[in-house]
Design brief:
The complex is a heterodimer of chains A (about 90) and B (about 230).
Chain A lengths: L13 H7 L16 H4 L1 H43 L3
Chain B lengths: L1 H7 L1 H31 L7 H4 L3 H27 L19 H4 L18 H7 L1 H31 L7 H4 L3 H27 L19 H4 L1
Chain lengths: ~90, ~230
């Protein structure tokens, strides 16, 4: 059966781990404080996402509106101008 | 993003494609028919791009445009004041008229996300409040005018072929030919609108915004069901 860990803990000598570990002074444990979303940039990301969504919405509404308006206006100009030119 | 865009604009996109395909189809068969007629009259045939810029093609396009925009112009106008109980195309009885500022979310009742001109007052608010009707009406008048200009040229071409004197634009717009072209389109538009309003009282199309929900009682308009 394959071990879940590649090297069983017992197989590693204590001296080897001590040598490999850098000598970092231990600091007192800090209380784990969850930063509020705005401190982590979460609210900004959220606002950006909302703004992007609103922008996409505006584009998806504006494109068909202006596409159809252009067709109608160009069509009218052509249908009025050509007969006036005697075509 | 592109997929989302395509999904959210599919209705207008589908009609745009259908419109362009049918306009191209109309121009091709119109071109073939026009050349048949020229041949029968012993005249030389014309090219496709020459045909689509002639009044013979434009009058047929314009006369259909004007009737469609008239249809929507009148429908928008009529649904302000007239009610059809049970139709999803109609407001509910008692709601006739322009509605209060509160109902319409205008002026001081506008929401934060209301259009800017809905928050305005005076002329700007009046224009925006009627912008759909004004636009449809303007397109109707202009395309009807285009029909009269193009039809006038076609009529004078025919007069010339038959050895008749040309007529003025003023004489053409009161002629039987102009009104024949006009009224044959108008009657079909009014037929379709009237039938749609009446049929939708009792008939349903599941999933369509033009229909009431399938199980909604016949006497209930779609606005009441919301």
């Amino acid at each position: 059966m394959r071990s879940a860990h590649p090297i069983p803990y017992a197989a590693v000598p204590a001296s080897a781990t001590a040598a490999a570990a850098p000598s970092i002074p231990l600091r007192p444990a800090r209380r784990c404080v969850m930063l509020r979303p705005e401190k982590r940039g979460g609210r900004r990301e959220g606002e950006d996402a909302v703004r992007q969504h609103e922008r996409n919405n505006r584009i998806s509404q504006a494109v068909p509106f202006w596409a159809w308006m252009t067709i109608v206006v160009v069509g009218l100009v052509v249908m009025i101008a050509l007969p006036l030119m005697g075509r | 993003m592109m997929r989302e865009f395509m999904r959210s604009t599919r209705l207008s996109l589908v009609f745009l494609i259908i419109f362009l395909l049918t306009l191209i189809g109309q121009s091709v068969v119109g071109f073939l028919y026009n050349n048949e007629e020229l041949t029968q009259h012993g005249q030389p045939e014309i090219g496709y791009f020459e045909f689509v810029t002639t009044s013979a093609f434009l009058v047929d396009v314009a006369e259909n445009w004007q009737s469609e925009f008239l249809q929507f112009f009148l429908f928008i106008l009529a649904t302000i004041w007239f009610i059809q109980k049970g139709s999803p195309e109609s407001k509910k009885p008692g709601d006739e008229g322009l509605g209060s500022d509160e109902d319409q979310l205008v002026g001081s009742h506008a929401r934060r996300d209301s259009p800017r001109w809905a928050r305005a007052h005076g002329v700007r608010l009046w224009i925006y409040s009627n912008s759909l009707l004004l636009t449809m009406g303007a397109v109707f008048v202009l395309s009807w005018f285009a029909q009269s200009l193009a039809g006038h040229i076609v009529a004078n071409d025919e007069n010339m072929q038959h050895g008749l004197p040309p007529e003025s634009w003023g004489a053409y717009v009161v002629s039987a030919e102009f009104w024949n072209r006009t009224l044959q389109n108008w009657q079909s538009e009014f037929l379709a609108v009237g039938a749609m309003v009446a049929f939708s009282i009792y008939l349903r199309q599941r999933g369509s915004s033009e229909s009431k929900p399938v199980g909604m009682p016949h006497h209930t308009s779609s606005e009441e069901s919301q």
